[in-house]
Amino acid sequence: VNADLQEKTAVAEASPIAAEEESWCTIALNAVPADQREQFAAVPQDVLCVVRGFANEKDREKATTEAMAMIAAWRVKVGYYKFFEEMHPVARDFHTWWPEKIYGLDGWGHMLQGVRVEEIDSDKLSKVEELDIDKIQGQKMKAYSVYKQDLCAKTGQQRYKHTLIVDLTGLSMGMLAGSKRTVLQKILSLGSTYYPETMWQIYLINSPMIFRAVWAILKPWLHPITVNKIQIIGTAKEALKKMTQQNIPAASLPTWMGGGHPGKLTVDYVHELVHAQRLHGSLPA
């Protein structure tokens, strides 16, 4: 990882909307149905992420407007703007079968999110309906967006990206068989499809011997930009050393890898947002 490039990227992320980007935000919002445009615009970072995420596409306007239209249609399908009115009936089970935690911040102020493969129950997840996965995973991703928005409001620094840490211990080819493969693909691809430009780095830790075969299956599911952000590291000890060298304090990293942060269950944070009846685009009470 090029430290200078990371610093430059972090500065670009924190920079306010430029005049040129303002016109692109208008073009992007015009691709959203009129009855949803005001709601979409209520969180400017959502529009900015799409504008910046597709800035280098060959046909920038086509890529940007198609992405906005697709995201807008998906938001209607899953009830995005009412995500924190209630917990989905299957949410508690889903979060039990795919538990995630929120850890500390890196040196730039990016939130750290973590998941451990050995805690995932792919058999039970494979029984969950596709639309339910969209709604529950979508609600979780929106919760992360709100978490980052609240951090920005608190620190005064714009940060819409976060880092994902994955402990690959327990990974098996069986997790990619049949319907389990479809569910895993859905969960992994939903973030980059409907929440573009929100990933800072992805660290895959404790990669087992079979990972090369698994990676050959997983890699095509991910956007090339996402693939470029992935770092595969052997052991937790090696990861701790490498990540602390990459501007992540040990105190922010999970205790399971030798860091000092116990983590907070994401499902508990989602419950807090539902309990508060957190409205789209609003700041905490």
Structural class: alpha/beta
Give the strand order of the largest sheet, numbering strands 1, 2, ... along the chain.
Answer: 5-4-3-2-1-6
- Please tally the helical runs, counting DSSP H or I stretches of 4 or more residues: 13
Rounded Rg: 18 Å
- Poorly predicted runs are none
- Overall pLDDT score: 94
Share of helix, binned: 40-55%
Using DSSP, what is the number of strands?
Answer: 6
Instruction: Estimate the strand proportion.
Output: 5-15%
| Shape call | globular
Question: Which oligomerization state do the chains in this entry correspond to?
Answer: single chain
How would you spell out the order of helices and strands?
A: HHHHHHEEHHEHEHHEHEH
How would you sum up the major sheet?
6 strands, mixed
Distance N to C terminus: 39 Å
